[in-house]
From TrEMBL:
<dbReference type="InterPro" id="IPR047122">
    <property type="entry name" value="Trans-enoyl_RdTase-like"/>
</dbReference>
<protein>
    <recommendedName>
        <fullName>Enoyl reductase (ER) domain-containing protein</fullName>
    </recommendedName>
</protein>
<dbReference type="InterPro" id="IPR013154">
    <property type="entry name" value="ADH-like_N"/>
</dbReference>
<dbReference type="InterPro" id="IPR020843">
    <property type="entry name" value="ER"/>
</dbReference>
<dbReference type="InterPro" id="IPR013149">
    <property type="entry name" value="ADH-like_C"/>
</dbReference>
<dbReference type="Pfam" id="PF08240">
    <property type="entry name" value="ADH_N"/>
</dbReference>
<dbReference type="InterPro" id="IPR011032">
    <property type="entry name" value="GroES-like_sf"/>
</dbReference>
<dbReference type="Pfam" id="PF00107">
    <property type="entry name" value="ADH_zinc_N"/>
</dbReference>
<keyword id="KW-0560">Oxidoreductase</keyword>
<comment type="similarity">
    <text>Belongs to the zinc-containing alcohol dehydrogenase family.</text>
</comment>
<dbReference type="InterPro" id="IPR036291">
    <property type="entry name" value="NAD(P)-bd_dom_sf"/>
</dbReference>
<feature type="region of interest" description="Disordered">
    <location>
        <begin position="1"/>
        <end position="42"/>
    </location>
</feature>
<dbReference type="GO" id="GO:0016651">
    <property type="term" value="F:oxidoreductase activity, acting on NAD(P)H"/>
</dbReference>
<feature type="domain" description="Enoyl reductase (ER)">
    <location>
        <begin position="68"/>
        <end position="368"/>
    </location>
</feature>
């Protein structure tokens, strides 16, 4: 197929502050702050609403202690798919904490947004996708991050190996926030922890009738993890969440739910495992709370709480732990991610098993083989417009979403 050239509409972008003469205007709303704050305390947004083609832009000064800023601005660049790529008209883009939090790993000056559902408008010469295909997927992560690949914009360049055809019966709205969280959960369970998923053709340690603790079950990654763990045969599946969310998580596959606010939640979990006659040695922290920022405290962090919830007396060699954040104080925790580039080096520059990308792809192809197998989110919030999207990105990054997945409806 021949390459086609199509101009993109609105986007969500991440950029260093431009000189005054380069900035778009008028500015309609500004909230600013300073310091090397973590995502939950990261201030700053600058909303810009003029122009026919708008984008949500994250702006950050290039120094470590820079202010972080979000803004909406026009996008003028034309995007052209190459070889295995495709140009997708974004219909829904999922909001995730990394939309804002990547500021803290040095990423700025790019359109933000890392997952999508939409319709293929143009394809590269070697793409297996076809114009008109309904697809979902994620963006690759790189240093520097490339704006054409990001998804809080009305058109984006997507990679074939990170894109999947929408199964019949799965709505675009439901698919827009599915890929990133599902791939993160798949990477945690089947790559970092090394468990098998026979139905997907993924080998490893058998998980059937093995207990697992998923800390933060009401997070979007936690919701996906519970469903993947159930599909892979884990039992019992322990999880933590607010009491109000327990019933919903049990419907998704959790067998035992615990109130994370309980003063002895770790003891409650250990007691439950003991009463069931199982040794709890596997855990997935989907939130990584308390690890970064001025209020960080390793003793009260969620990885530490998860570690304390494991069965006493278990041999250390049997312990397998993973977190969505690096856990410097406990080397037993592996680090999971939504994106595994092909090869032996991960997206963040660390070594990885070169089979990891293939294993995740197999899991995703299996669960997206039908709408019935695709992980479901019980509560999807749809927002419209750039300003609403900007506000929701901050709310999600600051921990304001529980048992809720927020997606932006396009056009922005």
């Amino acid at each position: 197929m021949s390459e086609q050239k199509t101009a993109p509409p609105p986007a969500i972008d991440v950029q260093e502050p431009a000189p005054a003469y380069e900035r778009e205007s008028p500015v309609t709303s500004t909230v600013q702050g300073s310091g090397p704050a973590p995502a939950r305390e990261m201030p700053a947004n600058l909303v810009q609403l003029d122009g026919p083609r708008r984008s949500l832009l994250k702006k950050a000064l290039p120094c470590k202690c820079a202010d972080g800023q979000l803004t909406i601005k026009q996008v003028t660049e034309d995007y052209t798919p190459q070889k295995l790529q495709a140009l997708v008209s974004i219909k829904y883009s999922g909001i995730n904490p990394c939309d804002l939090n990547f500021f803290h790993v040095g990423l700025n000056s790019f359109v933000t947004g890392f997952e999508f559902a939409g319709i293929v408008e143009a394809v590269g010469s070697e793409s297996a996708l076809q114009v008109g295909d309904a697809v979902l997927g994620i963006s690759p992560v790189g240093f520097p991050q490339k704006s054409p690949a990001c998804t809080h914009q009305d058109k984006a360049i997507v990679e074939s190996n990170l894109t999947f055809k929408l199964p019949h019966g799965l709505a675009l709205k439901d698919a827009g926030g599915l890929a990133l969280t599902t791939q993160t959960a798949a990477d945690a369970i089947f790559n970092v922890l090394g468990f098998a998923f026979p139905a997907a053709g993924v080998t490893g340690t058998g998980g059937t009738d093995k207990p697992i603790l998923i800390w933060g079950g009401a997070s979007s990654v936690g919701i996906a993890a519970i469903q993947l763990a159930k599909a892979a045969g884990f039992n019992p599946i322990f999880t933590t969440a607010s009491v109000k969310n327990h019933a919903a998580l049990q419907l998704l596959g959790a067998t035992h739910c615990f109130d994370y606010k309980s003063p002895d939640v770790t003891g409650d979990i250990r007691a439950a495992a003991k009463s069931l006659g199982v040794s709890l040695t596997f855990g997935f922290d989907t939130v990584g709370s308390g690890l970064h920022g001025p209020n960080a405290d390793s003793e009260t962090s969620t990885p530490t709480l998860l570690r304390r919830s494991l069965s006493k007396g278990a041999e250390e060699i049997s312990v397998k732990l993973v977190c969505t954040q690096p856990v410097a104080h406990d080397p037993a925790f592996g680090f999971c991610t939504c994106y595994r580039p092909v090869g032996s080096i991960g997206a963040m520059g660390h070594p990885q098993d070169p089979e990891f990308p293939t294993r995740v792809r197999k899991v995703m192809e299996y669960v997206l083989g039908s709408a019935e197998r695709a992980p479901k989110h019980p509560n999807i919030t749809v927002v419209k417009g750039g300003e609403a999207g900007l506000q929701e990105i901050q709310r999600v990054a600051y921990g304001g979403a529980s048992l809720e997945k927020v997606v932006i409806e396009h056009p922005i």
